[in-house]
Amino acid sequence: MVVTLSKVDLNLTAIKSLIPVRDKDAYKNLFGHVLIIGGNHAMGGATQMATMATVNSGAGLTTIATDSANLPAIHTVLPEAMIMDWTDVSAIQQMIEKVEVLLVGPGFGMDNLDLWQLIKTTIASSKHSLRIILDADALNLLAADLAEEDKTIQELLSPDNQHEIILTPHQGEWRRLSAGKVPADDQARVQNWVDQAGAILILKGSSTEIYVPNELVIYRNPGGNPGMATGGMGDTLAGMIAGLAGQLNKTADAVKLAVFLHSYIGDQLYEDHYVVLPSQISKRIPYTMKEISKKEI
Questions:
Q1: Is 263 annotated as a binding residue?
Q2: DSSP assignment, residue 100?
Q3: What is the CA radius of gyration of the chain?
Q4: 131-134 and 33-37 as β-strands: parallel, antiparallel, unpaired?
Q5: Does the annotation place 235 within a ligand binding site?
Q6: Is residue 109 part of an annotated ligand binding site?
Q7: 8 A C-beta contact, residue 200 and residue 210
Q8: What's the CA gap between 39 and 128, in Å, rounded?
Q9: Contact 79, 68 (CB under 8 A)
Q10: Least crowded by CB within 10 Å, which of 57, 141, 171, 268?
Q11: CA quadruple 274, 9, 53, 44: dihedral positive or negative?
């Protein structure tokens, strides 16, 4: 049977309705606690950029588990975030059981296998529901697991279907995740892969596409520009998804909002910047969310 997929372009009108409205008596515990695990001794900046995006997207609380070499810099740059040494196994396990959103991957490195195994074991056995974003090196480590084990992503990470999983690959990471068997431009086969994986897929490219399990709609983001082709841009998007995932009822809505805002802000900056820096995008998130929410559309 041939499955027909419809395509919907993300636009300002649809996105405006997704921006959460905060009650006058709102407090931080209503807006999600995010744990970000990443940043080895050489790539602490990746975790800083992801965290900056999470905080500026409105997460109620943000905690970073990272290499101890990064702790002083993060204290200086991001006083809003809490930090912990990722060698403290017990603390990480306890924090995973405490938070609502988990982001793994920015600057994680491919040689941190013991920690990766700990994360997988903890979330797979947890009865606590999480929204889990896997980005960067976490995607490559997951791809290696899928190649070695005869298990699905859900069986590896969420055997009781207790978690929602979001994957954020660029084209190279997608080839590894799909074992080179599913071309990125074959949308029907990508949707079938997503249905079997049971995970939301953000397939990054010049026109990023969002696939949701068991939906017949592909959400396409037409925004973005060549000025955004710089290191840390994906870390920033992952952080935005994490920050918004704790605030919206539907995970797919948080993904759509983050993807649109990321490029929308980038396009505004590109009007008078030759290069758009990830940190510039993060700083403009709160302003842009307020601006869109007040727009007459």
A1: no
A2: S
A3: 18
A4: unpaired
A5: yes
A6: no
A7: yes
A8: 25
A9: no
A10: 171
A11: negative
127 marked ligand binding residue:
no
Q: Are 84 and 67 in contact (CB under 8 A)?
A: no
Q: Is the pLDDT of residue 157 over 80?
A: yes
Q: What is the pLDDT averaged over residues 149-170?
A: 96
pTM of the model: 0.97
Token pair 């995006």 in the structure block, residue: 53
- Write down the mean pLDDT value for the chain: 96
Report H helices in the chain.
Answer: 12-16, 44-56, 71-77, 89-96, 113-125, 137-148, 153-157, 171-177, 187-197, 233-245, 251-270, 278-294
Please tell me whether 207 is known to bind a ligand: yes
252 annotated as a binding-site residue: no
Could you tell me how far CA 24 lies from the centroid of its own chain? 28
Whether the CB-CB separation of 204 and 212 falls below 8 Å is answered with no
Residues 256-279: what's their mean pLDDT? 98
